[in-house]
Specification:
The chain is α/β, with parallel strands linked by helices. The protein has 10 helices and 22 strands. Bound molecules: flavin-adenine dinucleotide. Flavin-adenine dinucleotide binds next to helix 1, strand 2, helix 2, helix 7 and helix 9.
Length: 391
């Protein structure tokens, strides 16, 4: 019998998590599948480690592993060729080099694009660590920084990894203090509380840390422009002058999804549709949408922890479609580890699928463990061991 073809788009967190699970489970259950992952670059990045590069705590090479090792260790075919568009009606993906790849099942995990051009001045001003090149530039800017005002600027919500700007604010404030550098750190954000949906325990943890370190938390009501010459961020209600600007990108829909019929979410064109609880495409039953582009339509947020969970749930359902009797899980909880000051914390949120709204919802119960060096070690260890599985 010819094997059924599973094609996975994207070699990041969602693509790799799906490829590993589908290939391993197919082997365990003797299911005849051909799994192919299509991605645009040879590296599989673990983006949270970009911050460690910016802080001088990791080398650039520690942030990635060769994607082609998915073939060596997991039997997945890897094709490095950018996706151009999806022709879902004909079960085909068309690549930049003109290849037409047919599939029985498709898993889409193309991440999100960074819309630096969305606000005047944002593209040119300041630094970021949302890709490796940016992280190296931010590292060098921090090495040159002699003191002054640092503004961490979030132009809009949602954005990739809710906790990151707050982690960065407290880690930087402690690092400046320890290095004897006189710096004021301000977070300029549209979010009334640091990651509002995560609840009061996590808000308290951040606000306590901000108070201890003198980090200012300023809420703006809409981005206007960044004047890079005069070093001012202008919003509709406040202006902040800066010596060093660290910026967060507004998210956008990846190009191949913009070009594909049925892959723009009508309620908000920054995202692509997905149907909870399974992350199936609402129109195409054999297509699963697990990348960051589809977290908001499912009712959750933009972060690797959700993409990882979504990938496991979608892979379960895809395998159940093929195998028959096989668990069809939904996402019950999300656990994350973050940096705070020179230590770390672990947070754990309950999530439920609400059949009435057809969405995942926060169960309003997030727990935060104690701030400790162990939690920091866990965070770094998790990312590094994830990459080690492809080395
Ligand atoms: C600084 C920083 C800190 C973070 N910290 C955390 C954290 O502490 N916890 C957490 O949960 N998350 C964190 N995140 C977020 C996390 O990295 C993302 O949520 C996660 O990577 C999203 O997975 P994804 O598969 O959707 O996208 P990605 O991991 O970005 O993967 C997208 C893949 O698609 C490929 N691709 C794109 N376009 C094409 C194309 N046209 N053709 C083929 N391939 C294409 C890319 O090359 C890439 O391989 C952080 C992110 C950053 C930047």
């Amino acid at each position: 019998m010819t094997p059924r073809k599973v094609v996975i788009l994207g070699g990041g967190v969602g693509g790799v998590a799906s490829a590993k699970m589908i290939s391993e489970e197919a082997r365990k259950h003797s299911v005849n599948l051909e799994v192919t992952l299509v991605t645009k670059e040879r590296r599989h990045y673990m983006p949270p480690l970009f911050f460690d590069v910016a802080m001088g705590e990791a080398s650039p090479e520690e942030t990635y592993a060769p994607i082609e090792n998915l073939s060596r260790y997991f039997g997945v075919n890897v094709l490095v060729d950018p996706v151009n568009y999806i022709d879902a009606a004909n079960h085909t993906v068309v690549t930049g080099s003109g290849r037409k790849i047919e599939y029985d099942y498709l898993v889409v995990a193309l991440g999100t694009t960074y819309e630096w051009g969305k606000y005047p001045g944002l593209a040119k001003a300041g630094y970021h660590n949302y890709d490796l090149e940016g992280a190296i530039k931010l590292r060098d800017a921090l090495r040159r920084f002699k003191g002054g005002k640092v503004v961490i600027f979030i132009p809009e919500t949602p954005y990739r990894c809710g906790i990151y700007p707050y982690e960065a604010a407290t880690v930087l404030a402690v690092s400046f203090r320890n290095a004897g550098i006189k710096a004021e750190v301000t977070v300029l954000t549209p979010d009334p509380k640091p990651v509002t949906p995560l609840g009061k325990d996590i808000h308290k943890m951040w606000f306590d840390a901000f108070e201890e370190l003198g980090v200012e938390y300023v809420v703006h009501k809409g981005t206007q422009e960044i004047d890079g010459t005069r070093r001012i961020v202008r919003t509709t209600n406040v202006e902040e002058k800066y010596d060093l600007l660290i910026k967060v990108p507004p998210p956008g829909l990846p190009d191949p999804l913009k070009k594909s019929e049925g892959f723009t979410w009508k309620q908000d064109e920054r995202f692509a549709p997905a149907k909870p609880p399974t992350f199936r495409h609402p129109e195409y039953d054999n297509v699963y949408m697990v990348g960051e582009h589809s977290m908001v339509p499912a009712g959750i947020s933009l972060a690797g922890v959700f993409v990882h969970n979504a990938s496991l749930v979608a892979s379960n359902n895809l395998l159940a479609d093929i195998i028959g009797f096989y668990p069809r899980y939904t996402i019950p909880t999300a656990t994350c580890a973050g940096y705070v000051k020179d230590k770390g914390f672990m947070g754990h949120c309950e999530i439920r699928y609400n059949p009435e709204t057809g969405k995942y919802e926060w169960a309003d119960r997030c727990y935060v463990g104690p701030i400790s060096s162990l939690a920091r070690l866990f965070k770094v260890g998790f990312y590094k061991s994830w990459l080690d599985s492809l080395r």
